[in-house]
């Protein structure tokens, strides 16, 4: 059983201890390399099954990393990140909205985390050719010529930042201007935070929050490889991602999406909705240390975790489980362990911690939302999915890593999301106020 926790701050059934509207979750949707839907993903996660496999959708000869957690059961043609991100987001949001029973015309705003949008090399080359550029260079005048000749083939629409959000807003009839954001690997959690804050301010009674990423393509793979961020342990693929293990050597790219329907508890109860859990706290902390590395002292990570706890009005002892960022890179796992030790003290050695990236890879801008969904499923089912491949523990990291599915009562989870460039967002999720 979980250790004793401090009680919640004084709150009503509809407002928290600070007098703000409680934010309830009434719908969940998810798609990852493990499958489509919450049921399929939960079954695979708790079985310790990996969705990481050899890449088949494009040639990988000559690449150091040839594996990823790809979503191969949905149409991935054309292989363009914005279109794949939109496709995954639509599937996840359809499930979440249907479960919530909130109606076909969504009564709130859309907050969606998407990958940084930029034209990819196949489209750049085709555009240069269409513009008549013999050397393949794409200049402003070349773009003007291509636009005048109307030979964009719709790419100008696909590669505009915000287009994915616009299309999703049309699909789900959300209200107001859709918010599109990209804060690296914390993006999915940030989308949830924005929805929570909007409901707390009384601006809306509901928010559709989505994190999505379809970036497993040659260009992204090469870029991360050049940063020496990816695992090169290609065989067997399912053993490559090994968070908190001594022999970890990098993360594995993944893709997918998750969606959450957030509502004020008062609104959800008034319409008789089933409440799946609550977002009790959100914390964020920027870190200007480096464009890709985080501060080695872990100070911003520690601050983000503490801010989430403070926002929830809870002490560290109230947390039953940490859903780790746990990327499987040497530096990130060390920094997260350091941060958890600072926040939880000696209890960190007895506090269950797990990383689902061991099974689905790092889904980048979708990760924070996917892990929030997994955290809520953990709470509802009383089961913590394992961190697979934890065969060689790192003795320098004094953590209680869950290496086999653990049946234990979980009421409150701290879900961590730490992004390149030091963009850190943490969420506290619970089964009750």
Annotated CATH homologous superfamily of the largest domain: Thiolase/Chalcone synthase
Number of strands: 16
What is the name of the CATH architecture of the largest domain?
Answer: 3-Layer(aba) Sandwich
Q: For the CA atoms, what is the radius of gyration?
A: 21 Å
Percent strand? 15-25%
Order of helices and strands: EEHEEHEHHHHEHEHEHEHEHEHHEEEEE
Major β-sheet profile: 12 strands, mixed
What structural class results from the helix and strand content? Answer: alpha/beta
Question: Approximately how much helix is present in the residues?
Answer: 25-40%
Mean pLDDT: 90
Task: Characterize the structure shown.
Belongs to the thiolase-like superfamily. Beta-ketoacyl-ACP synthases family. One of its GO terms (molecular function) is 3-oxoacyl-[acyl-carrier-protein] synthase activity. It comes from Methylorubrum salsuginis. The protein is α/β, with parallel strands linked by helices. The protein has two domains: 23-118 and 159-430, Thiolase/Chalcone synthase (Peroxisomal Thiolase, Chain A, domain 1, 3-Layer(aba) Sandwich), CATH 3.40.47.10; 126-155, no CATH class. Helices cover 32% and strands 18% of the residues. The strands form three sheets. Strands 1, 2, 5, 6, 7, 8, 9, 10, 11, 13, 15 and 16 form a twelve-stranded mixed β-sheet that branches. Strands 3-4 form a two-stranded antiparallel ribbon. The chain has a two-stranded antiparallel sheet with strand order 12-14. Helix 2 (81-100) runs parallel beside helix 6 (163-172), helix 7 crosses helix 13 and helix 10 packs across helix 11 (330-344). The protein is globular. The model is unreliable at 1-10 (pLDDT under 50).
């Amino acid at each position: 059983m979980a250790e004793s926790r401090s009680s919640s701050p004084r709150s009503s059934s509809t407002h928290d201890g600070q007098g703000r509207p409680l934010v309830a979750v009434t719908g969940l949707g998810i798609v990852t390399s493990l499958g489509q839907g919450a049921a399929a993903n939960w079954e695979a996660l708790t079985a310790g099954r990996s969705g990481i496999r050899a890449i088949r959708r494009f040639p990988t000869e000559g690449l150091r990393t040839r594996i990823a957690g790809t979503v191969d059961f949905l149409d991935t043609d054309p292989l363009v990140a914005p279109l794949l991100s939109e496709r995954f987001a639509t599937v996840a949001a359809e499930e979440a909205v249907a479960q919530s029973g909130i109606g076909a015309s969504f009564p709130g705003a859309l907050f969606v985390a998407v990958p940084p949008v930029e034209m990819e090399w196949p489209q750049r080359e085709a555009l240069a050719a269409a513009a008549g550029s013999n050397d393949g260079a794409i200049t402003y005048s070349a773009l003007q010529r291509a636009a005048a000749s109307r030979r964009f083939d719709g790419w100008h629409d696909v590669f505009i930042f915000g287009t994915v959000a616009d299309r999703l807003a049309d699909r789900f009839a959300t209200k107001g201007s859709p918010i599109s954001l990209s804060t690296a690997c914390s993006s999915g959690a940030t989308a949830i935070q924005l929805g929570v804050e909007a409901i707390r301010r009384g601006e809306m009674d509901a928010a559709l929050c989505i994190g999505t990423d379809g970036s497993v393509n040659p260009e992204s793979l090469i870029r991360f490889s050049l940063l020496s961020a990816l695992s090169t342990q290609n065989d067997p693929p399912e053993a490559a991602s090994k968070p908190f293990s001594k022999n970890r050597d990098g993360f594995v790219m993944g893709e997918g999406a998750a969606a959450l329907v957030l509502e004020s508890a008062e609104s959800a109860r008034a319409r008789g909705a089933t409440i799946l859990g609550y977002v009790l706290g959100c914390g964020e902390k920027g870190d200007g240390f480096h464009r890709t590395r985080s501060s080695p002292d872990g100070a911003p990570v520690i601050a983000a975790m503490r801010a989430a706890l403070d926002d929830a009005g809870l002490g560290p002892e109230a947390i039953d489980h940490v859903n780790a960022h746990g990327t499987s890179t040497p530096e990130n796992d060390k920094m997260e362990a350091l941060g958890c030790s600072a926040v939880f003290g000696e209890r960190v050695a007895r506090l269950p911690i797990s990383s689902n990236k061991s099974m689905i890879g790092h889904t980048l801008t979708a990760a924070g939302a996917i892990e929030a969904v997994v955290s809520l499923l953990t709470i509802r089912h009383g089961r913590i999915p394992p961190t697979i491949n934890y065969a060689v523990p790192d003795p320098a990291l004094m953590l209680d890593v869950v290496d086999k599915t653990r049946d234990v009562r979980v009421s409150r989870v701290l879900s961590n999301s730490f992004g390149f460039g030091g963009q850190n967002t943490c969420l506290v999720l619970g089964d009750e106020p």
